[in-house]
Amino acid sequence: MDRKELEKVSDFLLGDENTAYAPYFIGKSYLSLLNSKEVIICNVTFEPGCRNNWHIHHGGGQILICVGGHGWYQEMGKEPQLLKSGDVVYIAPKIKHWHGAVADEAFAHLSLSVPAEGASNEWCEPVTDEEYEKLK
To answer: Domain with 124 in it: what CATH number?
Structure first.
């Protein structure tokens, strides 16, 4: 998908290719830091089929505000949720989860890191192609 198409997914800045976190993603994503004072807010845009690995937020949690396209969110042991623009997902600390785009459409969400002392991310295993291809 070319950059001009990706810039149309949401009204927020697309940002740069997310190379810093690329080892924790399958596919290509883009990251735009929107705010770094008190609450970190980023716009994350996923190319079609892109998803991040299973991961856990320790300390503070995370809030996703969907701003374009369609995507998936899944907590370990639960059914995946189809996401669309306007959906909001609160992810409590210590919940193993992943999120990303549907197979045939780009997806963008704002990611808000809930502030907490000693907050950190634990990156886990990838969402396998077999797991991902079962999503409907």
So the answer is: 2.60.120.10
CA distances 82 to 73, 107, 117, 130, Å, are 7, 11, 32, 18
* Spatial separation of the C-alpha atoms in residues 114 and 112, rounded to whole Å: 6
Name the domain count of the chain: 1
Q: In terms of residue numbers, what domain contains 31? A: 3-133
For 108-131, write each residue's pLDDT tens digit: 999 999 989 989 999 999 999 999
Structure-model confidence comparison of residues 107 and 136, the more confident one: 107
- 131, with CB counted inside 10 A (0-12, 13-18, 19+), is middle
CA distance 99 to 32: 17
51 DSSP 8-state letter: E
pTM (2 decimals)?
A: 0.95
